[in-house]
Amino acid sequence: MAQVGGDLGAAAKGAIIGAWRGTNETSAEAVETIRAAAGGVVKGASEVAGNLGTAAKGAVQGAISGAKELGMDATKAASAAATGAVKAAGEIGSGVAKQVRNAVTVE
Q1: Burial class of 104 by CB neighbour count within 10 A (0 to 12, 13 to 18, 19+)
Q2: How distant, in Å, are the alpha carbons of 13, 26, 71, 76, 95 from that of 41?
Q3: Which end of the chain is least crowded, N or C, by CB within 10 Å?
Q4: Where are the domains of the chain?
């Protein structure tokens, strides 16, 4: 499991960038894609007993990288990823939602 946990942030980032690149969506549709993909990343991390905070951070980083690459608003992309990650975590459990919320909150 240590190997999975160590690579989870990078994998999450790559998943978000890949999901975004695979679409030809408008800004509003892209935001929804990011939100859904980030939720999927968190749920997937849960299934392999990975660190959900690390997965959520990776998803947000992927959203920011993708936005910059595609000339879109990085703040909106990061917010969408964080929202999707926290929502998915909330479906898993309230303690998990708090862990993910803390991981994606900018201090």
Answers
A1: buried
A2: 9, 22, 23, 18, 18
A3: C
A4: 2-104
